[in-house]
Amino acid sequence: MENQAGCVSCGMPFRSIEDHAMSDPAKDYCRHCARPDGTLKSYDEALTGMSGFFQHTQGVDPAVARKMAAETMAHQPAWRGRQPAR
Ligand SMILES: [Zn+2]
Prior knowledge:
Structural class: mainly alpha
Oligomer: single chain
Mean pLDDT: 93
Strand content: under 5%
Bound molecules: zinc ion
């Protein structure tokens, strides 16, 4: 896999400055993974956001989307090894 800079939380590649949180290239997470004040979302907040993304884009059930999101996030530097609380 190409070693391209991407969000440490969701893996989205940065294609422009605007993709970074607060349009700040020093931040290694994207605008989708940032709170309105520019800080990184918590694990649960990011998981919820990504679950919604999978539900919307892939039309899967909420439980399936949450599992997909958890598996994706387990490979991201920000959340490596984390698992959702049951
Ligand atoms: Zn992100």
